[in-house]
């Protein structure tokens, strides 16, 4: 929405008797404008105008100057960098009660100014005052285009976060050149119209609705990838079925939500428990997988192969790439800001843990040789959750699978360029966060991570209700305890009963929703047993959970949940210890889709976006926000590339200009779902856009113009260790005792604590969990399940015989 020109202050017409006061008296804001001294006309006590202050950081040469080349009136502010190594300079509204505009939590504000620039490296930067934490960087809202003549820039803020009472803003210059600005305005956006009446039942309006689809998933998929054509790739490989492995029968399927149909895809290798990530061109990189199941006697564990493939959504085919340098069963996979992929952890071809970091070069379309990849020779475990931070470092959240966490605090920041690991404190009970879930909270600009739940398959206690939140914008980021996970019901073998005490869940799924909240769903109380039926929605603004309708299907080990382009959530899978598989598929309709008509994006001017762009869309009615959500590539509660990137708005009726971040570390290149959301939180159906191109910054280090954060962590710092081949890993790493049953059956090495350590109690637990007939592999019976020695565990003679 274009703003009228600022009216010349009435003070200019004051008689000569009071004219001298113009140098010291504050220039008030107009009736609608919340900015004091918006045109720099009132002088301050020093060399800056009243209510304006110098700000900035880094190694650069600069000048601040009040100039006469004004848009209106007689004054404007010019900020210039004549030399820059790093950092920025900016003229900001003074962070004081007298000058910084008062704001209301949950409201949005339209900001605008007039400017001239001689550099493309200038952006509108926003700070907020937290009543507890004080002043802190909030976000960069808009990159300013080069402009030789006076040009207006306008943008709408996100909703004001909880605890915020004032804001300050201005233009940051982070490249050599100048920005001259004038006539700032700030107006509160009008309150939205009341929410429409809900179109569902009262229960659905409050808690949403689950539907189990009539067509079942034809494959035992444990990997789910939402493709940029709106379809879903479901990867099974052998599906944790050794008979399929021996037969060389490997499967994938492509699900089309529009038609509800599946197409089975030829799959060249056993991609069971591989890593996967979407490349910037929309193809899916699938790395490693299962080279071999554990031996019958349990002396050899799972093995990971070196093979790597790319899946093309257009042809729906796999193509082999060059090999990785090492095997990686259960590897991490994180896309970087330049389109490269970095991967850690997993099991090698000999079942030991891989300490080799791998890097896929987007430019060369291959895995780089080991000597070209920075190595710390660290073992990060299996599926370590490695989240890209907005300065290119990686945050290991502490979420992983199988057993204890890594040594130390269980969470760390990895600096690839510096090749250092800095431990991050605060993660609660780090060794019971096995099969927890971590998610970068909306919006990504806030750089907050939520970690929920978990257990430990080695000791198999009740899964916990722990949640932890970390703010990576803090100079010394530390996890702090979040609210406990809500409790639901748990099926211990005799039907669902309410959870009690500290019972929570492992194997939860987290899904970013277009209204800016997070759905958490699914899970189990113990290692591949005792499903938990509980779903809730986490609100990052209030840091609270709201319990909603639970998925009616069990969703534990090898389950997935992910966002569809129409705003619904799809869940698949469940692979309990008895080796069975749940082929039913559930769809969750959140309450925001039951609030009547939803907004529509009627046109997207351009679907090819570059960093720092302003992109125009048209909508059929007013919207409050828009965002990019990276489509899911999820397995084992892990999707470290999932992110929600806010797009600050400039609104002119049905035309909305979206301001794209200039930082690819904040939004790595690739395909995204673009949602427009109205004031009631109702989202449009997504449009697909492709984000690519060079970072909109002058130098390699200029990404720091988004302000330093996590810049002084006080944890223990580790540099590269001595080169080594691998990390010893026990063949029981999956928490399964292979002396009983086939390789896809998981008799737990440790039974839940409430199961007595007797043959009868253990056999009763196995019977309640439908394990069926279990042959004993070899002569050993470590769990005392075959006292009569007939080679069949839990037979009639075994249960009668006391041991």
TrEMBL record:
Residues 598-690 form the Galactose oxidase-like Early set domain. InterPro entries: Gal_Oxase/kelch_b-propeller (IPR011043), Gal_Oxidase_central_sf (IPR037293), Glyoxal_oxidase_N (IPR009880), GO-like_E_set (IPR015202), Ig-like_fold (IPR013783), Ig_E-set (IPR014756). Residues 777-787 have a biased composition (Basic and acidic residues). Residues 712-733, 777-803 are annotated as: Disordered. Gene3D superfamilies: Galactose oxidase/kelch, beta-propeller (2.130.10.80), Galactose-binding domain-like (2.60.120.260), Immunoglobulins (2.60.40.10). Residues 252-578 form the Glyoxal oxidase N-terminal domain. SUPFAM superfamilies: E set domains (SSF81296), Galactose oxidase, central domain (SSF50965). Keywords: Signal. It comes from the Bacteria. Residues 716-725 have a biased composition (Basic residues). Residues 1-31 form the signal peptide. This is Galactose oxidase. It comes from Streptomyces ambofaciens.
